[in-house]
Design a protein that fits this description.
The chain is of the alpha+beta class. Helices cover 67% and strands 17% of the residues. The chain has a five-stranded mixed β-sheet with strand order 2-3-5-1-4. It comes from Virgibacillus chiguensis.
Length: 305
């Protein structure tokens, strides 16, 4: 009986010991798995921090890259946008417009806009031309326009120096391209979907900024390469005011003015008669009837005498 109790007690002790060992091993396995998850999370966060720090370092290095300053540019290299406004008075509008169109082509330019208008009261016409001319040909072109046929009424030339803005855009573009290259490298190294999405968003933003900067640079370059010229041509048939008119020109002016005066008088008389025709007809009829009545009355009085 005692031996049985002893064996039963030993069996319970062995069973308790095995249960303790299993619980310890399960706790150890859980702790190991949790440690592995923590390590994985830490590694992911570290990789993202490294990517962000790499991007910041890339931008900083790109900004520190030497780019020529606006002050170091030569006069010929500066970006200046020229605009000219000119008014000319001529005797023959059609001929002057044809001359200007040919002149624009000769100086490698092109016409942006051309229009004409008529002034019926003054019997004069006006033409407008907007042209783009290469900056290298701008000065000789303007000299020919101002010294050509007709009287120069006014001329204004203005210039806008955009060199500083262009250099700043050039520096920003270089910086963004370096960042773009680095982000592409990060994208090739990324293994997780979350990292790829984050890098793709940054890359799309950088590429959009590159397109905007490039578009602005192209606009400034085009404006600086080609000057804009606005020309207004006024036609005057009678005369172009001048302090040194000879006798023949003065006589011609007076003759034309006399003809214009006669035409104006005839025109006014015609307008008066045509416009008041009903009243004039009525007055004429009444006058005719009155004349007949008076004539008969005079004849009757003459017979009675």
């Amino acid at each position: 009986m005692r031996s049985r109790l002893f064996l039963l007690l030993c069996f319970f002790l062995i069973l308790l010991t095995s249960c303790d060992e299993r619980s310890d091993s399960s706790d150890q396995s859980n702790s190991v798995s949790s440690n592995q998850d923590d390590k994985t999370t830490i590694q992911t966060e570290d990789s993202r921090e490294m990517a962000n720090s790499g991007k910041e370092q890339t931008e900083q290095k790109a900004e520190e890259t030497e780019v020529p300053k606006a002050d170091t540019y030569d006069v010929d290299q500066r970006k200046v946008i020229y605009t000219a406004d000119t008014r000319i008075e001529v005797k023959d509008l059609q001929k002057k417009i044809a001359t200007l169109e040919s002149l624009i082509i000769d100086y490698d330019g092109y016409i942006v806009e051309s229009s004409r208008s008529n002034d019926t009261k003054e019997n004069n016409r006006t033409g407008f031309i907007t042209a783009r001319v290469p900056q290298t040909n701008f000065k000789p072109f303007m000299d020919e326009v101002e010294s050509g046929e007709g009287k120069l009424l006014s001329s204004n030339i203005s210039g806008q120096d955009v060199t500083e803005e262009y250099v700043d855009l050039e520096s920003r573009l270089q910086s963004k391209k370096v960042v773009e290259k680095r982000l592409l490298a990060f994208m090739e190294q990324a293994e997780k979907t979350e990292d790829l999405l984050a890098i793709s968003e940054d890359l799309a933003e950088v590429q959009e900024e590159i397109e905007q900067i490039t578009g602005r640079m192209n606009y400034l370059q085009n404006k600086a390469d080609l000057a804009t010229v606005h020309i207004e041509i006024q036609e005057n048939y009678v005369s172009i005011e001048d302090g040194n008119l000879n006798t023949w020109e003065a006589t011609k002016q007076q003759f034309i003015k006399s003809i214009n005066f006669l035409l104006k008088v005839i025109s006014n008389v015609f307008v008066f008669i045509a416009g008041n025709m009903p009243v004039l007809i009525l007055i004429s009829v009444l006058g005719w009837l009155g004349w007949i009545f008076i004539r008969k009355w005079v004849k009757q009085n003459h017979k009675e005498k």
